[in-house]
Write a structure and sequence with these properties.
This protein has 310 residues and is of the alpha/beta class. The chain has nine helices and 15 strands. It has a domain of 211 residues: Rossmann fold (3-Layer(aba) Sandwich).
Length: 310
């Protein structure tokens, strides 16, 4: 049975990749520096990618899905630049240099490297070959990740870079928009929307994202691929979906957007569709409903429901 190492295995996308890989017949080794409830067929390694245990482990697996990193486009904590360099760029270098060159590697970059769709005055989706225009430190760190791979992964093994667009579904990080809005709506609190309800996002189903990653890895593909749906939904559509799922219309407060916020994210999916058939369409309401079902609710001390996150 082939062995797959999934870094960031305790994370949002990581949990779905581990589940999908196990179902596909991989022996999965999950690595994360946080402890997590590993599945029965998953070998859990609690470690940092910079730890000594990582390099020998990389020689013992048949392929790697590298998802570990410092998330958060809006993270402004004082040490964020150091963490992004260590956890995104440095950790990727450890994986790329330590994995034997003949073994497949898939690495998660981000759609933030584009700086938004239509930024040069024409409304069109982002294609993998267009010039990058990252906004902010997080996006720049992902560009640096891709540059590390271009320098180090020159051997015969396939190297895949994926640029996921807005990923939603079960286990979404609590700092992401839909998770925050569901928590607020359930608690009877206002939803805060950055910039405008007319801003648009290409929303992708985490299950489809995980499945596409494995299809790209299994298929021996090489290069950069957008992981998007190829369609966009306004933030107003997102709010409507939350209202439909929660069963009441929350108050909406539009607040100033950060300079790193883009008006539209939109993936050109031609390359992905050619390689592995693209992502299956998912109803936004159905996706939000699945996420809400998996997002636990506990009673606040004051008696109002508040979303609880692991």
């Amino acid at each position: 049975m082939p062995r797959l190492l999934v870094t960031g295995a305790a994370g949002f996308i990581g949990r779905h990749v581990v589940a999908a890989a196990t179902a596909d017949g991989w022996e999965v080794v999950g690595l994360d520096r946080r402890r997590w409830a590993a599945g029965p067929a998953e070998h859990a390694v609690v470690a940092d990618l910079h730890d000594a245990v990582t390099r020998p482990l990389l020689t013992e697996v048949d392929a790697v899905v590298h998802l570990a990193g410092a998330p958060g486009v809006r993270d402004d904590r004082p040490d964020v630049a150091r963490r992004r360099w260590s956890d995104n760029v440095g950790a990727t270098a450890v994986v790329a240099e330590g994995l034997p060159r003949d073994r497949p590697l898939l690495v998660a970059s981000s759609s933030s490297v584009y700086g938004g769709a239509g930024r040069v005055g024409r409304h069109r989706p982002c294609h993998e070959d267009e010039p990058l225009a990252p906004r902010g430190g997080y996006a720049r760190s992902k560009v640096a990740v891709e540059q590390v791979l271009a320098r180090t992964r020159t051997g015969p093994g396939p190297t895949v870079v994926v640029r996921p667009f807005t990923v939603a579904g079960e286990g979404q990080r609590p700092d992401m928009a839909l998770a925050r809005w569901l928590a607020a709506a359930r608690a009877g609190q206002p939803i805060e929307v950055f910039g405008s309800l007319d801003r648009r996002r290409d929303v992708t189903d985490v299950r489809e994202v995980a499945a596409a990653m494995l299809r790209l890895l299994d298929g021996g593909h090489h290069g950069t691929f957008n992981l998007g749906s190829g369609t966009t939904h306004s933030l107003g559509d997102h709010v409507d979906a939350v209202a439909a799922v929660v069963g009441r219309r929350p108050e909406v407060r539009v607040v100033a957007s950060h300079r790193r916020e883009v008006a539209t994210t939109w993936a050109d999916t031609t390359r992905l569709e050619t390689a592995v058939g693209g992502l299956a369409a998912t109803s936004l309401v159905d996706l939000v409903a699945r996420q809400a079902t998996a997002q636990p609710v506990v009673e606040h001390a004051g008696g109002r429901p508040v979303a609880a996150h692991p």
